[in-house]
Amino acid sequence: MAMTDLAIVGRSLTSRWFATATTVLTVGVAVGLLLVLVSLRSAGEQAFARGTGNMHLLVSADSSPLNSVLNSVFYMGNPAAAKPLSAFAALRADPRVSWAIPVVQGDSFQGYPTLATTNEFFTSFEPARGSPWRFEQGAGFKNTFDVVLGAEAAAGTGLRVGDHLHLTHGTHDESGHAHEHDEFHFEISGILAPSATAHDRAIFTTTEATWLIHATDLRESARNPVAPTVQNLRDDEKVITGLYIRVKGRANTDAPPALQELYAELRKDGTITVAQPGSQVASLFKVVGGIDRIIFALAAAVLVSSSITIMLVLYQAMELRRRQVAVLRVLGASRFRVFMLALTEAAVIGIAASLLGVAVAFVGAHSVAFAVYQSIGLTISPSLDLRWVISIVAGATALACLAGIVPAAVAYRTDVLRSLRPIG
To answer: Which helix (H) or strand (E) holds 2?
Structure first.
């Protein structure tokens, strides 16, 4: 197409800049919404899969397997109940079990959740498969009241190795005040490197420290004068809220032969809840997938309606510009050339809207990811898949061209003599 034709198209679009800008914005938002849904859907699923790491089973006393995973792995709430560690002695000694790491939740510091565990959490559990923990500063637990900070917790609190802190029991009570365990002084022994999982927001303590804190509260309430120590803790004071389990098998396998056998056995125990974190995440996204399809359909409907807007705007403009079209015809422009000029206007609107949509998607996806992190602490890393970008941009441009056929047909059928009659 000649450069003069592009100049004609550009002048035509800029002469009615408000209508053009509004149309581009409408289509761009629809394109952006579609791309945001696609990018966040896959990024969210990857984020949840990363958090479950290399554990095969999660045992707890929570109300359901999904709640157990959300609470004990993603820190979305405190587990509903705890059980004595001694209740799992047989399970921990089972020859089919490679490792069983106890965890205790319930405390916090400046809004960051705590997870009481053992050093095995840092040496055996991998927050993301194939990506073991790495310390940026310091090391794991050496003493009972040592603390290890996740990367985000360290950045948010500004604490460093050697600093001290007091934990808070739970979050806040009904009056909005927090109960601080100020009689127990914790020292930071290490800071973990980022793992892009919910564990980055956690503050890790030893199980013994947590047991001592809560045993002190319980004994004071019961007016028991004997101060708790690691040596005199009773079985009912050594409680845990979850047990991360990996079944023996070949390295990096997600389905060792003994897994389903052990899972079936544990499910028969009505006093515990057993979950396969990977399966629970997959089930969660099956439910979310149905909602996704509805929102995706609505976004597609908005895109189609936006293409209708393109048709109406160009049709109205073409009705007002019949005289200009007639002048072009008199100057030698063929019917086909006039048709293509009108169709090019629609294509330019579609391309401009698609580019705007990509920019909207980039900003929107990262804004949503930030909001999700602030609300539930889940780290999502959205990325625009080039295949989806090309498909949606091509589809939006094709719809715009399709919408331009009607006004292009109007230009094609313009009667030169009638359109050039003197006005009035």
So the answer is: none
